[in-house]
Inverse folding.
C-alpha cells in the first residue's frame, strides 16, 4: 500500500472517530455528522474508482534525491505521530483527574498543533498544514474554554468533533486529489 492510500484511509478512519460525537444531538448535530459521513462515503467511492485508473509511482522511476527526500519526510511523519501520541496520552492522563470533559478538546488542540510538525520538512511543507493547525487548535481551545465556563460538554464535544472531522475529511480529499497530482508534477503550485 503506498503512502497516499494509507494516508487516505487513516484520514477516513479519523473522520469516523471524530464525527461520532455529534450523532446524539438532534437535529443539527446529527444532520451535520451525517453530512460528513456521506462526504466520507463519497470519498471512499471515488478512491476505489480511482484505484482502477490511477497512474502509480511504479511507472515513474524515482531518483536518489527523491528517495532521500522521501526518507526525510517519513522521519518527520514518524516523529510527528510519536510526539502526538505521547502528548495526547500525557494530556489524557493529567485531565482525567481534573475534568474528563476537557480531554476531547485537548486532543483536538494537540491534533491541530501536530500539523505544524509537517512544516519542518521541505518535502511536507504546505500552507494546508498551517491552516489545519490553526483551525484544529482553535476548535480545541474554544472547546476547552467553553467547557471551563460551564457550557454543555455534549454540545461542545459535538462542535469540536465536527470541526476536526471536517479537517480529516479535507485531508482525505487532499490525499485523493492533490497529492497524486503533485507526485505526477501536474500541480506544483499547490504546495
Amino acid at each position: 500500500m503506498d503512502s497516499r492510500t494509507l494516508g487516505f484511509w487513516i484520514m477516513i478512519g479519523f473522520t469516523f472517530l471524530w464525527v461520532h460525537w455529534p450523532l446524539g444531538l438532534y437535529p443539527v448535530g446529527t444532520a451535520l455528522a451525517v453530512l460528513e459521513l456521506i462526504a466520507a462515503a463519497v470519498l471512499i467511492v471515488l478512491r476505489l474508482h480511482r484505484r482502477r485508473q490511477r497512474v502509480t509511482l511504479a511507472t515513474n522511476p524515482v531518483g536518489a534525491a527523491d528517495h532521500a527526500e522521501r526518507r526525510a519526510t517519513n522521519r518527520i511523519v514518524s516523529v510527528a505521530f510519536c510526539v502526538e501520541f505521547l502528548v495526547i496520552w500525557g494530556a489524557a492522563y493529567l485531565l482525567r483527574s481534573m475534568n474528563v470533559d476537557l480531554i476531547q478538546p485537548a486532543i483536538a488542540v494537540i491534533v491541530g498543533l501536530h500539523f505544524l510538525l509537517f512544516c519542518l520538512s521541505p518535502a511536507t511543507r504546505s500552507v494546508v498544514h498551517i491552516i489545519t493547525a490553526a483551525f484544529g487548535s482553535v476548535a480545541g481551545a474554544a472547546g476547552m474554554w467553553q467547557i471551563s465556563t460551564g457550557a454543555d460538554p455534549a454540545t461542545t464535544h459535538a462542535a469540536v468533533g465536527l470541526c476536526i472531522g471536517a479537517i480529516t475529511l479535507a485531508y482525505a480529499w487532499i490525499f485523493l486529489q492533490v497529492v497524486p497530482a503533485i507526485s505526477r508534477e501536474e500541480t506544483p503550485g499547490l504546495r
Observations:
- The helical segments are 3-19, 28-53, 64-95, 103-117, 127-148, 153-176, 178-183.
